[in-house]
Amino acid sequence: xxxxxxxxxxxxxxxxxxxxxxxxxPQDTRKIYNSANKLFMLSKYHPVAFMVxxxxxxxxxxxEILIKEYRAQLEDRSFSTLLEYAxxxxxxxxxxxxxxxxxxxxKHVLEKIRTRLLSIQNECIESVxxxxxxxxxNITDEDFVSTFIATLEEILEAQRAHLESLENLDxxxxxxxxxxxxxxxxxxxxQLLGIFENLHxxxxxxxxxxxxxxxxxxxxxxxxxxxxxxxxxxxGCDEIYPRVAAYQVGIMYNGKPRSMFLPxxxxxxxxxxxxxxxxxxxxxxxxxxxxxxxxxxxNIFNMLQNGLSSVITERLPEDIxxxxxxxxxxxxxxxxxxxxxxxxxxxxxxxxxxxxVLDPILEMLEYLPKDELAEMAETLVNLTAFKRKMSNSLxxxxxxxxxxxxxxxxxxxxxxxxxxxxxxxxxxxxxxxYNGTK
Length: 438
Hints:
Radius of gyration: 26 Å
Helix content: 40-55%
CATH topology of the largest domain: Glutamine Phosphoribosylpyrophosphate, subunit 1, domain 1
Structural class: alpha+beta
Strand order of the largest sheet: 12-1-2-13-14
Number of domains: 3
Shape: globular
Distance between the termini: 28 Å
Oligomer: single chain
Strand content: 15-25%
């Protein structure tokens, strides 16, 4: 995992990223290395940067290689807005089959198919088990199969309805859905045979078609499981103040990246510029700093509201009043009063957090000089690393912290940067940097 942050005011934007990378799956013992590069110059000539978190590669290509390939072909070209840099980058990934092979794309699509089918299988088995546990009669093989088929139909319909309710990913449409069914239905049926084994022969053809539809929708809709996060930051030529554009990105399908713009972590669509502190990946420490309360405590208020409503309207009347319990109308009125009280409590708490913690920080942030922005960004990433170090969890944030400052006048400036080599022994690297070889 990762901790990254963007802090921006009218003077510029500071970016900071740790260097920790974990090798291995969550089920296995992980190895942590503290030498990963996650913050890059997107252009050598203009103040635009790129950060990445989550997966270390995209369709098998390390992000560092991909960014440097894009930077080489970008040369000294520029765009009016930051979003245009992002759009040009996505165009670059779409039009470069020399970087992303068809075989590698197919490999990742098949992995996603298998992951989705395993999820359907697990949900189906758990549901069937719960249904059959309530049966008092002896369960025959025929009963099990019929229950399995009925449950599979329910799960597929629920997933199809959920996926249909989501928006399409950018550049994906129903044509991509039809292409999937033509190209991958045979592969999907082979996966079905391996996953459902003896039950495969009981799955009707119409059910298989529904499975293929769910798989296709999971590729063209805004539905993500394992993915990377990428952040474009800096200035377009026509932008006087810095901007941030964040995306979630998964695999590539039909020659196009599955990417989704994240408006909640971006500032490109704001009507007016406001100073901002935007954390990425492991962000709970920064959000605690900004609000004075760990984000997990917000769940307690939701639990308290639901618990109070349930206890007071359902359990207490029977315990206290017995047969003379209040009517449903009275219970509904009590629940409404409780919900209104909890809503007022949440509003008051939000006002306290804003007026006593967040607003003073943002007021100070508005006037910070560029070097102080950089110090603040580094400190907040360090706080996350320190918390991981002092807990019994995996130290998934750590190592040297790379810090960059971007401003309209000075461009991209490294405030702190690690090297895997000694600069004094490698002057040729810096001499060659702007001749197109680095």
